[in-house]
Design a protein that fits this description.
- The protein has two helices and two strands; from the N terminus they run E-E-H-H.
- It has about 60 residues and is an alpha+beta fold.
- It has one domain.
- The chain has a two-stranded antiparallel ribbon with strand order 1-2.
- The chain starts with 5 loop residues before the first strand and ends with a helix.
- About 0% of the residues are buried.
Length: about 60
């Protein structure tokens, strides 16, 4: 997606960026997706260091057995 930012300057320096609302929604969604991916990668990295559970052990732990 192409963004159409408007730069607002203060005292000759870039101070603010204004983007159309639709572009903001897309950008926010992409940021949330990135954060989810980052969290997933961190969880997978942590999980690799821990022993797994069998389906039977998981069911027992959840009180389903």
């Amino acid at each position: 997606m192409e963004f159409h930012p408007q730069i607002i300057q203060k005292n000759g320096k870039n101070e603010f960026v204004v983007i159309p609302y639709e572009e903001f929604i897309v950008l926010r969604s992409k940021i949330e997706d990135y954060e989810d991916l980052k969290d997933l990668r961190e969880a997978k990295s942590t999980a690799e260091k821990q022993p797994g559970l069998t389906l039977k052990e998981t069911a027992k732990e959840l009180g389903l057995e």
